[in-house]
Each structure stands twice: as C-alpha cells, then as structure tokens.
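Per reviewer request, we include the raw input and output of the structure prediction for the construct analysed in the revised manuscript.
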Amino acid sequence: MKKYVVLLLLLTACATKKADENDVPSLVPPAETSSAANAAADARLAEMQTSMTELLERIDVLNARIARLEAAPQPETRVAVQPTPRVVEPAPRPVLEPAPVPSPAPVRATAPPVSGPLQNAAIADSYRGALILFGKGRMADARAALQQVFDADPSGELADNALYWIGETYYAASDFTNAMRAYERVTKEYPEQNKAPDAMFKIGLTFEKTGDLGMARKTFDEVIRRYPYSTAASSSKLELKRVKY
C-alpha cells in the first residue's frame, strides 16, 4: 500500500512540474531581419513622398485659381454727372465747305502675346498635367512636360518645382546620375525656393543608393543645418539614425 502512495505522489509531482513549465511565457523575442527594416523604411519614405505630391498639387490648384481671378476683367464703375443746364444763344457761323477726310489705312488685327496672369495659369495647368503623368508612371512623358514648364518661365514660381520633378523621373527610373544633376540645379540655382530642401534631401538619398554612405550622412547634416524647420530636415534626422558607415 505504501508503494502505491509513493508512486502516486511521484506522478503528481511530475505532472505539476510539466504544467509549470508550460505556463512559463517565452522571453525570446522574434528575430527581426534587416530586410524587414529596410522594407518598412522604404514604405515610410514612399508614403511621405505621396503626401508631398498631393500637397503640391493642392497648392498649384489654388495658385491657378488666383491667377484666373487676376486675369478676369474687372467691371468699370462709372458715376453719372448731371450737367448744369445753360442757355446759350447760338452765334451765326459762316457756311464752310467740308474738307475732304482721308480714308484711314486698313489696320491688320494681331493677337497680343499671352503674358502675365494668363501665362501663369497656363503654366500651372501644364505643371499639374505633368504631375498626373508622373503619378501614372509615364516618366518619359512627364519629364518632357516638366521640361516645357521650366522652359516657359525659368524664373517663375514653378521653375524649381519642374526641375525637382524632372530629377524624380530619373530617380524613379534608377538613373541616379541624371537625377543628381537635376537636384543639384535646384539647390544651386534656386536655394531659397520651396523645393531646395527636398532636392538636397534627395541628393543624400541618391548618395545612399549609390553606396556613398559618408556623403549621404554629410548631405543630411547639411539639410538640417540650412533648412532646420523643413520637412526635409525631419526626414534627414530619421535617415541619419538609419544609415551607418
């Protein structure tokens, strides 16, 4: 009888031990691979680029509307002035022969060149159409349309935008040499315009894509120094945490 009691106690102790082992939660965290981290970073970057594109399109729509309002003819306000009645005795005048009036030379009507607000509205429409082509993945067509926008007014408000998106068409096609040239033109020719911070940030990403991590980090530092309150500066800080020598 005692043997059965001892055996029963041993079986009970073994069962309790197994139950306790099963109840212990695993403390080993799942392994994170570098490929998953890179995919998450690329997805975050793509989301930020899409948001910036949508914001630019909205700004361009507002600019086009303002240009159309400025180009619209304004109604003239006329104030009717009541003349003071006068009684004037007509003086006798001699009858003279009317002098012959020479017929005016025919004037050929010529259309004035489009300039001012109308030209700005047309450029804004072309720019918006080029961004739509970019969104559809038609990079060659978008690049040609953006080049026309830039050539139409190289000193206009959309010149730096056009150059930046030309660089984006090359970047999307992995042509990093031409992408770098377009971005550098924006930073050198339009350093105070709105696309200069984004262009400098993309220069850093281009260095990163081509394997020059030292220049990439240096460029991100320059973005933060020159444009500390820009969205590109915030993105540069994230890249500096991710990129290692």
